[in-house]
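Handoff note, outgoing to incoming analyst
You'll be picking up this chain. Sequence as last confirmed:
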Amino acid sequence: MMRWPRRKVTVRRDGPVRVVIVRADIDEAVAARLRSCLNDLASAGHTRVVVDLQGAAVCDITGCDALLQVARRLRACGRQLHIAGAQPDIGRLLRSLGAVGAFAFHLTVDEAVLAVGASDPIG
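Most recent structure output, in case you need it:
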């Protein structure tokens, strides 16, 4: 499991899926760690990514930008960034940025992991 400073952002493996767990509100500092983590995963070729936002009550624009940048990068590979457990306000904010289709939203991490496997078969 990779860990970033202060364990606010961690990564665990669930088969071929990488689950990025955010355990803090996403402000500029946490967004920088999240962006670094997501870019590291994408650079390593991991395109099956779920971001668990259950631990984040709020997400500022820098956090949304970090998520959107990686979503665009994954989309170029024919994949989607899967978001699990986002608070309603965070989901609305991400949708309001005109990111239609950039994200797939799920209530739980388990649901997201299953969806990644179903929508992104190995090939």
